[in-house]
Fold this sequence. Notes:
This protein is an alpha/beta fold.
Amino acid sequence: MADLxxxxxxxxxxxxxxxxxxxxxxxxxxxxxxxxxxxxIGIIGDTRGISDETFRILPGVSEVISILKEYKLSSRDFHPxxxxxxxxxxxxGEGYFVIMAGPCSIENKxxxxxxxxxxxxxxxxxxxxxxxxxxxxxxxxLGLGPEGLKIVKEVKEELGIPVITEVLSPEExxxxxxxxxxxxxxxxxxxxxxxxxxxxxxNKPVLLKxxxxxxxxxxxxxxxxxxxxxxxKVILCERGIRTFDSEFTRNTLDLxxxxxxxxxxxxxxxxxxxxxxxxxxxxxxxxxxxIAAGADGLLIEVHPKPxxxxxxxxxxxxxxxxxxxxxxxxxxxxxxxxxx
Length: 340
Ligand code: PEP
Ligand code: MN
């Protein structure tokens, strides 16, 4: 099995072209990544039938490697350098630290505007808020829907801050991507392959949340669905998984996922301690832990009056608590050598 062709340091452009030609002739796609020292060419497709020899004999080839994992484009073997995603000037990825904050659900314009203004002043770079809400009960508040998108547009323009909002179905991708700077795919939709394929076809960053019962390999395979369609702007988000104890926390925030994902993949890794814990009183320590574990950012729920929130009030921070969070985590981010 051949997946990666490592070219010699002195391989010529012609030799690289010949390898690409051969890959394409065999009916596969070639993914060329030119590093500072050498070029690595990946073969996209089902490579199980290709022998290493096919490529090892070509001039300029140094090594042929097979990747035993199912996910390729998302793996570090395939793409050793970190992916940095630029969202209207906000950098997301290794070396940077981004705070995305805002209400769980957008309830009205004033609520989003006030929250956005506040979190921006305190250092958040992206405003979050959902208009399409996937709720456990169909009788709960399901979001403002398309009406809410108008609010998102107005507030983002008035405040000059990029926004992230959730997309629930392939049919909504187009309208949401016209307004939202990042498309969020929630935990319940991580396995929605049609949705993953659809967002793979747009040129907008996608924040993919880990399903609450997904193994990390499943998570990476779902990211692969998006990358395979051509969209390489994928941000991973650890948001807690289900374990046996739901007495004290809503989910178990899997902190070990952070260094593992950073090792396995080149994609940015963001942590959502709001859904990960379900309780506002432990957001600060869990955020510090996430930073220490190597996270590239945080997704935090904030509400002007959490006790009146239409969703997730119990885990939303008040403005004052958000200010405290920012003060307390800043030194940790600096110690980790990340720019905010
Ligand atoms: C959210 O971020 O508001 C949300 C619904 O998250 P999750 O999909 O992780 O539950
Ligand atoms: Mn929420």
